[in-house]
Amino acid sequence: MLPERFQMPADFDLQRYNPPDLRKIVVRLSVQPDLIPMIQEYDHQAVEKVEEAEEERIVTLRVRQQEEILPWVLSLGSGVKVLEPDSLRLQIHNELIKMIQHY
Which long-range contacts (CB under 8 A, 24 or more apart) does 83-90 make? Predict the structure, then answer.
């Protein structure tokens, strides 16, 4: 334990406090329409919009780190394709290669 105790500033108001938004990475996914319920169940703060396209939905999210979304994207299987960022596409690709090597 630390010897000093935290003191909340006297003028701090939790009701008015607006923390900085650290979700700087924009992720765009092409998603099969039948997966939209799973998208809606995901972190509602991360999902910014869902756009209808001809045979797919384009989902835009913002995250702090792409590693936080990696397991979720993998869980959607072949019904999702990462459109951007390229670094997440590469990370998914590398993870899938490692998975294939197990079988």
Answer: 83/28, 83/29, 83/30, 83/58, 84/26, 84/27, 84/28, 85/25, 85/26, 85/27, 88/27
Burial of 83 (0-12, 13-18, 19+ CB in 10 A): middle
Residue-wise pLDDT tens digits, 78-99? 999 999 999 999 999 999 999 9
Q: Give the count of alpha carbons within 13 A of 50, CB side only.
A: 15
Chain-centre distance of CA 82, in angstroms? 11
Give the amino acid at 4. Answer: E
Distance CA 97, CA 87 (A): 15
pTM attached to this predicted model: 0.77
Quote the CA–CA distance of 24 and 101 in Å, as a whole number: 33
Q: For the chain, what are the domain ranges?
A: 25-100
Task: Give the architecture (CATH level 2) of 25-100.
Answer: 2-Layer Sandwich (3.30)
Write the DSSP symbol of residue 13: -
